[in-house]
Amino acid sequence: MSWAAHDLEPYLIRLKIGGAISLPFCLLGSYSPDILTKWAVYGLDFSGNAKLVDDPVQLHRGFPGVGFTHSLLFGVVIAALIFSFSHSRMWAVSFLIGSWAHVFSDTLDSVGVMLFFPLTEWHAHLDVWQYVGQAGRQLDAIAYYTSLGGVWDLLWAAWLIGHWRMLTADYFHREIAPKDHFWDWLGRRSSEIVMLTVYRASAFFGFASIIGWFLWAFLVNDLHAVPDWSLGGPQWTPRVGPP
Amino acid sequence: MARPSTIFQSRGARSVAFWIGAVLLYAGVGSQLPQAVFLGFWQSIPYLLLVHWVHVRLFGRTTT
Asked: pTM for the whole thing?
């Protein structure tokens, strides 16, 4: 799984594709595959000892389980629902692209995703880093940020820092708000501070969590982890493949 | 007397520094208490609302 990449990708998608993308719906799509299930994968506490299911990998990425949320069809179905209710092609397409960005990012770990479900339960997995979600959030954070997963997050953060002006209020008022009716709707119900908070929240959290998790993984926790940027790393974690 | 453009650039630079400090503060707290602030982006929203409120008080409505 990817961590902060899911928070940052939609901003750069919006930057590259432009006004055809609704950032809030692209973010919603980016969060959608995990939004209702991650808590069950990790368990109820930080340590990972309060397990809710016997096989978190099967639950998260398999079938039976909720692995269908990491398929291409899931994004299409939810986007179609959004279009049927809103009649906004922009919102539907933005959700779809955000969802697919999440799905393709998650092909990089060792478990991968059922891209073409329900046609097949075959998992696309590129094994760039280990999937460690079954061990709980604590170990997963250490494994991810000491492996190429952390580098993946850094790449997205560096790219967005290179375009930091898109996070300014000036850019928001000039380029973002006039091109998406969502901001009209929100503006009628809230203040500018709320609108800017909503616009920046995911980027802010992405940057802060990358820095914080790196500090925690390398300096704070008691496992004294070291970087392992080998393909499929880190090597100290148990090998986990598709369910 | 400083020219208006200089004042604006200085205020913009201080505003950017303010945001970098806000990110680093949140990241620092998260590195000590990840379960309190790093479970999801929704946990950052109260802090972010406060930061925006302070920013307006310090800098007024700026372009950053």
From this structure: 0.93
- Asked if residues A167 and A200 have their Cβ atoms less than 8 Å apart, the reply is yes
ipTM: 0.92
Q: Which residues pair with A45 in a beta bridge?
A: none
Residues 6+ apart with CB under 8 A from A93: A20, A21, A79
- Given a cut of 70, whether residue B46 has pLDDT beyond it is yes
Residue A224, Ramachandran bin (φ over 0: left; ψ between -120 and 50: alpha; else beta)? left
Q: Which of B31, B37, B61 sits opposite A220 (nearest CB)?
A: B31
Q: How many CB atoms lie within 10 A of CB B56?
A: 15
Containing H/E element for A93?
helix A89-106
Q: Which residues have CB under 8 Å from A146's CB, separation 6+?
A: A217, A218, A225, A226, A227, A228, A233, A234
Q: Which is nearest to A101 in space by CA: A37, A214, A21?
A: A21
Cβ(A64)–Cβ(A70) under 8 Å?
A: no
Phi, psi (5° rounding) for residue A235?
Answer: -75, -15
H or E stretch including A87?
A: none
- The pLDDT value given to residue A63: 94
Spatial contact of B41 and A201, defined as CB atoms under 8 Å apart: yes
**Short-list A32, A27, A33, CA closest to A59:** A33
Nearest-by-Cβ selection for A211 from B24, B32, B61: B24
Name the residue in chain A with its Cα closest to that of B53: A193
Count the neighbouring beta carbons within 10 Å of the beta carbon of residue B20: 12
Amino acid occupying residue A98: G
Residue A234: is the preceding peptide bond cis (ω within 30°)? yes
Estimate the crossing angle of helix A192-215 against helix B4-32, to 10 degrees.
50
